[in-house]
Amino acid sequence: MTATLEPVRPMPTAQHGPLTLTDLTKRYAPGLPPVVGGLSLEVRAGELLTLLGPSGCGKTTTLRLIAGLEQPDSGSIEILGRSMTAPFVPPERRGVGLVFQDYALFPHLSVLGNVLFGLRHLPRTQRLPRAQETLALVGLTVFASRMPHQLSGGQQQRVALARALAPRPALLLLDEPFSNLDAQLRHSTRQEVRAILRQSNTTAILVTHDQEEALAFSDRLVLMRGGHIEQIGTPQEVYAAPRTAFVANFLGRSNLLSGTASGQTARTALGLLPLMQSASGPVLLSVRAEHLAFCDAAEGVEVRILSREFRGRDASYTVQLGSQELLVHEAGGLLRPENNLAHVRVTHAATVVRELGGQA
Ligand SMILES: Nc1ncnc2c1ncn2[C@@H]1O[C@H](COP(=O)(O)OP(=O)(O)OP(=O)(O)O)[C@@H](O)[C@H]1O
């Protein structure tokens, strides 16, 4: 992976980002709630953005709308400042590359043939150099004459990536591209693809329902729920400061705890907790499972260990505090027996996910 790929398309200006979605709405059937409802989003040049959310929240539909494979009911899509929706621009004229989970390589064409296929619009003399340059970018030069079935899943996915990148799209759309790969290959392919996109300064949108993938891959992630954006931000921002109980639970494991806030602290069943943001009155707080720690009796509150699970790098304990069950993650082995009393304390400031007296 030593080659670089110079963009030939006009670089987006401050006014013309690679993609702007405004109030995008899509219903598959009249009368039913929209699958994508009033979604607005600005994607920045060279950004790796992830659409993350539970099954059926509208991720793939959003991607298909951007690609032109579906038409929105209302709202607009602009790519490099050009409207795709008024009038409707067909997929092949959008300058958008697509990579799907099933690679969709042509089985009867070699690796080089697959990459050349997407370059038919170029003058003949430019096609071969461009295909070779792109194969070098994805580290597959030595496999150019192989047939797809002679490659591993990860290599096939890199061919699919090369085929999508070769025309130098303004925007690359990746729909669950790693989900057909086993755990180890999935991890290494994800890292390789990320490095390739960075190196070619490609703007890309990844769809996934895998939170670990979204956290590792994205510059910003968009957490979707029921066709709308629940929260958008860098992975660190969204993980550290979930704005709603849904986000807190979807991204990582959180405990939701009620309390009474007064400025930067709240009184809860776990004692007086520091808060990430100030609030007053009744609140719902999120406390990450890894922000609860077992401790000596003098430092924490008493809980009963109900069950435990070994997870490799840590152990997960379900403990009972009064009528509430809490999740505690502890690094190291499976050290604590079930059905025993223990003590826990909170090690980090809690996040206010809802002020119960006022607005959400
Ligand atoms: N062609 C279609 N006709 C009717 N309903 C559809 C169609 N495509 C998707 N849907 C419905 O729209 C909703 C959103 O689907 P979509 O595929 O966008 O979700 P998703 O977030 O990508 O889910 P997943 O992670 O399971 O792929 C789902 O309820 C789905 O059943």
From TrEMBL:
Membrane-spanning regions, if any?
A: none
- Cleavable signal peptide: none
Pfam families found in the cross-reference section: ABC_tran (PF00005), TOBE_2 (PF08402)
What does the record list as GO biological process? quaternary ammonium group transport
Q: Which SUPFAM superfamilies match?
A: MOP-like, P-loop containing nucleoside triphosphate hydrolases
Q: Which GO terms describe its molecular function?
A: ATP binding; ATP hydrolysis activity; transmembrane transporter activity
Entry keyword set? ATP-binding, Nucleotide-binding, Transport
Identify the domain of life.
Answer: Bacteria
The ABC transporter domain extends over: 19-251
Tell me a GO cellular component. ATP-binding cassette (ABC) transporter complex
Q: Which InterPro entries match?
A: AAA+_ATPase, ABC_SmlMolc_Importer, ABC_transporter-like_ATP-bd, ABC_transporter-like_CS, Mo/tungstate-bd_C_term_dom, P-loop_NTPase, Transp-assoc_OB_typ2
Q: What is this protein called?
A: Iron ABC transporter ATP-binding protein
Q: Which organism is it from?
A: Deinococcus puniceus
